[in-house]
Amino acid sequence: MGMFFSRPPAPKPHEGIAGIFSFHSNGMFVRRTNCLLQDPSKSPLHGWLEETVQGHISEHVGRHAREGLMKPMSLSDPVTETFARLDAAMEQDTTQWMRITRLRPQDEVRGLAHDTMRHVGMHPSAMTWGSPLGQLLTGEVSRFWGNLYNLPAGGDVAYGSSSSECIFLVLLAARTKALADGRRPPFNVIRPTSGHPAFDKAAHYLGLSVRAVSLDEDLRCDTAALRRAIDNDTIVISGALPTDSHGACDPIGEMAAIASESDIWFHVDGAIGGCLAPFMDSVGVALPAFDFTVPGVTSIGIGLHKYGYAPVGVAAALFREKSIADLRLVDMSNWDGSAMTGDRVAGLRSLDTLAGAWAIVQVLGREGYTARARAIAENQKLFAEMVRDIAGMRVLVEPTLGVVTFDAVAPQHRDFAARFAARRHRGKQIQSPGGFVVCIGPERDDDDLERYAGEIRAALAQCNS
C-alpha cells in the first residue's frame, strides 16, 4: 500500500530544502513540479499553491540562503536517511487487512493534500481560525458537507481533531443546554452497546453517566430498550451511521422520534460512514434516513479523515441551529491578556489538516466522492460474498457503508477467533458477539480481497485439522 504522505524525490546537490524547491541564482525558490503532480498546472489549486509558495516562502527562505543562514542540502545530508527510516517503519504496518481497507484516494490527490497541508501549516495564518484563510477553509468545507446533509440555513459546523473530540463538544453543548434550561445533574447519555466508547470518555470528563442499551437481532439499537432507559435525567441519545463494531446502521428516524417525544438531544454518530452515506443512494445502496430532514436530529458527527479521505486529524460536528452549537463555547476573558473564546478542547490547533480536507473536496467534489462510493459498494458486496462462500463462515451484518463483520459458526467460533487473531493478516477483533471487522476502501489492487479471503480459509482450516 502506498503511503498517505507522498515523499519528494531525493534532492540533488544544488537543490535546497530537501528537494521540494530548486534554488535559482536570483535567490528565489521555485516549487518543483514533480513533488505534487506530474503536471501541476492541471490542478485547480495550482495557482493558489504557487502564490502561497512564492509569496510567503521565497522571500524569507531565499533571503536566508543568500545571507548564508541556510545551506543547500545534498545527498549526503541526513534528510534522505531520515525519510528512509520513516518509510521502513510505515511499511511494517502494511498488513493484508490494511491493504483492503484503503481509505485514501489516488496518489496525485494524496500528494495535493500533502502539499496543501505543508504550505498552509508553515504560514502564520495557520494558527488563527478566524483569519481570512481560516474563514475560506471552514466556509467552503462546511458548505460542501452541510449541503449534503441538508443543514438548515441557521445551522453551524464545528471542527475537532477527531470524531471523539466532536462527541465531547456535542455532550458539552447538551450539558450546557440542560443547565440553562434549569435542569440539575446528575445527567445521563444513552447509546447502544455497539456505540463508540468515545461517549464514555467524554461523559467521564463532563461528569455524566452512560447507559448502554441492548441491540435487536439485526445488531441495531433496540428501540424498546431505548424507551425503557430514558428518564428525566437523560440529555443525549445517540445512534450510529454505521456502528464501528458491527457495521449496522441504527434506526435513526425511529430513535430521533423517541428522543423528540421527551425533548432530548439526538446525535447521529457518523464517524465511520458520515462522509460515505450521502452518496450511497445514487449507487444503489439503500440506507435509513439519516440527515437533517429527519425530525428530531439535533447534531451529526462526520469523520473527515475516514471516507472523506482527508488527512488524519480533522472531523466535524454539524448542528441544526447555531444557537445550540454556541453552547460548546467557553468564555476565556477572565485574565489580563486578550479576551478569547474557547471552541474546542485543544488550545492552539493548526489549520493544516482542515486545509488538506479542503483540497480533497476541491478535487473530488460530488462526482469524485460518488465514484468512490460506487467502488466501495462493489467491493463490500464482493468481499461479503467471498466470506459466505467459505463453509463454516458467516457475515454478521449485510454491509452498507464499507464495514464488513464476519465470524466462524459454532463450534469453531472460539478456535477461529484465536487462530485468526494470531495471524499477521487480520482485522479488528470485536468482543460481542465475536468475530472481526474490516473497512473496505475504494481501491483494490493485487487481488487484495482474494488474498484476505485466503487468510480466512487458512485460519479456519487450522480449526478443522
CATH architectural category of the largest domain:
3-Layer(aba) Sandwich
The succession of helices and strands, N to C, reads EEHHHHHEHEHEHEHEHEEHEEHEEHEEH
Count the helices. How many? 14
Number of domains: 2
Largest sheet: 7 strands, mixed
Name the CATH superfamily assignment of the largest domain: Type I PLP-dependent aspartate aminotransferase-like (Major domain)
Helix % is 40-55%
- Estimate the mean pLDDT confidence: 82
Radius of gyration: 24 Å
What structural category arises from helix and sheet content?
alpha/beta
Q: Which CATH class of the largest domain?
A: Alpha Beta
Overall geometry comes to globular
State the CATH topology of the largest domain.
Aspartate Aminotransferase, domain 2
> What are the segments in which pLDDT stays under 50 over at least 5 consecutive residues?
1-44, 52-58
Strand percentage, roughly?
5-15%
For the termini, the CA-CA separation is: 33 Å
Give the total of beta strands.
15
Strand order of the largest sheet: 3-9-8-7-6-4-5
Cofactor: pyridoxal 5'-phosphate
Family: Belongs to the group II decarboxylase family.
Protein name: Aspartate aminotransferase family protein
GO molecular function, one term: carbon-carbon lyase activity
